[in-house]
Automatic annotation (TrEMBL):
<dbReference type="InterPro" id="IPR051258">
    <property type="entry name" value="Diverse_Substrate_Transporter"/>
</dbReference>
<feature type="transmembrane region" description="Helical">
    <location>
        <begin position="245"/>
        <end position="264"/>
    </location>
</feature>
<feature type="transmembrane region" description="Helical">
    <location>
        <begin position="121"/>
        <end position="139"/>
    </location>
</feature>
<keyword id="KW-0472">Membrane</keyword>
<feature type="transmembrane region" description="Helical">
    <location>
        <begin position="96"/>
        <end position="114"/>
    </location>
</feature>
<dbReference type="InterPro" id="IPR000620">
    <property type="entry name" value="EamA_dom"/>
</dbReference>
<feature type="transmembrane region" description="Helical">
    <location>
        <begin position="209"/>
        <end position="233"/>
    </location>
</feature>
<feature type="domain" description="EamA">
    <location>
        <begin position="147"/>
        <end position="285"/>
    </location>
</feature>
<feature type="transmembrane region" description="Helical">
    <location>
        <begin position="270"/>
        <end position="290"/>
    </location>
</feature>
<dbReference type="Pfam" id="PF00892">
    <property type="entry name" value="EamA"/>
</dbReference>
<feature type="transmembrane region" description="Helical">
    <location>
        <begin position="7"/>
        <end position="29"/>
    </location>
</feature>
<protein>
    <recommendedName>
        <fullName>EamA domain-containing protein</fullName>
    </recommendedName>
</protein>
<keyword id="KW-1133">Transmembrane helix</keyword>
<keyword id="KW-0812">Transmembrane</keyword>
<feature type="domain" description="EamA">
    <location>
        <begin position="8"/>
        <end position="138"/>
    </location>
</feature>
<feature type="transmembrane region" description="Helical">
    <location>
        <begin position="176"/>
        <end position="197"/>
    </location>
</feature>
<feature type="transmembrane region" description="Helical">
    <location>
        <begin position="145"/>
        <end position="164"/>
    </location>
</feature>
Amino acid sequence: MRIERIATISLIIVTLLWGTTFVVVQNAIAYVEPFAFNAFRFILATLVLLPFLVKRKQKTKLTVKQIVITSGIGFMLFLGYLLQTFGLKYTTSSKSGFITGLCVVLVPVLLYLVYKERSNWSTVIACLIALLGLSFLTLGDSFSVNLGDVLTLIGSVAFAFHIILSGKYTKQMDPLSFTTIQLATVGISSTIFSLIFEDTSVSFSKELWVNPTFIFAVIVTAVFCTSIAFWVQMFAQQHISSTKAALIFIFEPVFAAFTAVLFANETLSIQTIIGGTFIVGGMLLSEVPLPKKRTKEVKNEAI
């Protein structure tokens, strides 16, 4: 089996795992503050990878520049998860999943704005379709935007930058080192913010650490959806483009919506279904290239 196919299948499995975490995280943050939850999740994920990192002999030593760049990419990941987790306090799992999925549409847009990588008109049209879908999804009967929707949308921008930067820099480093530094950055940043802005007495209370819902959420998200998942993502993005990775990620909001319906007793209204359809359709269209114009030479040959 070709390495590109292995990377693609692996990334699909990772996307499935991420799509199922929205309900798990939403249940957990009912007992613990968002910064604290992310701190426990990413510190545990870092500790899971450290033994593998120590045992692996690096061919080349990490430079200070690589550590700084990777930490910066990790901070983008921190912002994304922070805003997504806070957003879940005010919005539903299905809406959070769909809005987070907008990062797929944002990837080609940001690639052009930052790196001048021009996108075709299909991408522009896709963004407009996705924006229309977002309005259906987030504007209720009162035509008001939920605070959680706004926070999740900003987090989606951070996730888009993380995909782009990971695709550009993961080829320069070992995937395990690249992943571990990022996760450690998220864990440390979350810990600092938790100590400053949250009530730490809740984080270290006996009631929390005997709560099966919280324990389950931390272990599942840390081990399967963070350490393993991001290690696989960094490996996969060494062999496939950021655009293809983004295309695979379009399935995350779909998985999130189905999980919310099956396990969180959420209902998908007609408005939500229409909005989600527009968003997923926009994501798909953003990856479909328009047919190129035929050159005069080709026309002459045809004649």
